[in-house]
Amino acid sequence: MSKRVVVLMGGFSAEREVSLKSGAAVAAALEKAGYAVATMDVRRDLRTLVGGLDACKPWVVFNALHGRFGEDGSVQGILDIMKMPYTHSGLLASATAMDKAAARKVFAAAGIPVAEGKVVHKSEVFAGDVLPRPYVLKPLNEGSSVGVHIIKGDAPRPASDADWPYGEWVLAETFIPGRELTVGVMGDKALAVTEITSDRGFYDYTAKYAPGGSRHVCPAALPKDAYGEALRLGLATHVALGCRGVSRTDLRYDDSQGKFFVLETNTQPGMTDVSLVPEQAAAAGISFVELVTWMVENAKCDA
Question: Catalytic pick from 71, 80, 264, 279?
Fold first, then answer.
């Protein structure tokens, strides 16, 4: 009898549509690998989620949810209680990585370079510049660049709740010039370094997921020492947060100074046809089917 895998997808965060695409791609690949696959479109209904999982009794849950309530430890805690192994990181690592302020503290304690920054109340943002321009404003717990504002030149900043529907608190960071890089990690190994460019000016939600929205260069054209340092930082963030399975860390490389800055770690990176980790795995000779197979075969829970 084939091993049964339930793929959690959809959800009710700002990244719902991306999660549906990730889940569909994962489900198709797992079926190709010979697993018995069921999918669940997760809604804000705990009884249906728990009841559906209990009825399916999966061998492993593949968590293809993105964003709040799927990537922040919430679902991970439920699966731990139900003693169901699941892909990606556990509750604590997921919650810490999703909270950008908490993740920054972990990175700093581990000697991982981050941009200068601080957490401010949204009222301070509405009242005036909270850092010298250029700087970046980020929601504390959204992914896929949802809500990110780059404030430079005479660009307007959010001035009311209508401009900032992302909660009371805001992470403000100094803008780091240079190149956008990302490093995928699989288990205890960094896969590759990808450079991302976009005509949109920065790697925002549309650039991430729209066909042609960005260009990925893998492996990135970096000096050998810089490439190695990017790999080291990608793995170091994975370890510092206590991640497991697959993660992806985004960095900026200020090549004028030869300095790296870690932006964030994604504990459940996208698995769509334009996603970065599958591209990096392919560059390392690992097919998409092999990647998701490895993920379910290495799934765990903290029961």
Answer: 264
pLDDT tens digits, residue range 69-101?
999 999 999 999 999 999 999 999 999 999 999
Q: Verify whether residue 80 is a known catalytic residue.
A: no
pLDDT single digits (tens) 20-32: 999 999 999 999 9
- The active-site residue out of 70, 250, 253, 275 is 250
Residue that has been written with the tokens 């042609």 in this structure: 212
Catalytic residue among 147, 209, 247, 279: 209
250 catalytic, yes or no?
Answer: yes
Distance CA 210, CA 144 (A): 12
Which residue out of 166, 266, 275, 279 is catalytically annotated?
A: 266
Residue 252, pLDDT above cutoff 90: yes
User: Where do we find the tokens 């005036």?
Assistant: 128
Question: Distance (Å, rounded) from C-alpha 265 to C-alpha 183?
Answer: 9
Active site residue 209: yes
266 annotated active-site? yes
Which CATH architecture describes the domain 4-87+293-297?
3-Layer(aba) Sandwich (3.40)
| Integer Cα distance of 227 and 201 in angstroms | 23
**CATH topology (fold) of 97-114+177-287:** D-amino Acid Aminotransferase; Chain A, domain 1 (3.30.470)
Query: Where does the chain show beta strands of DSSP type E?
Result: 4-10, 36-42, 60-63, 117-121, 135-139, 149-151, 169-174, 179-186, 189-197, 215-217, 246-254, 259-266
Given a cut of 50, whether residue 207 has pLDDT beyond it is no
Picking from 47, 34, 79, 77, the residue whose alpha carbon sits closest to that of residue 60 is 79
For 52, 95, 207, 219, 291, the CA distances from 144, given in Å and listed in that order, are 28, 16, 10, 22, 21
Residue 298 designated active-site: no
What does the pLDDT look like over 158-197, one tens digit per residue? 999 999 999 899 999 999 999 999 999 999 999 999 999 9
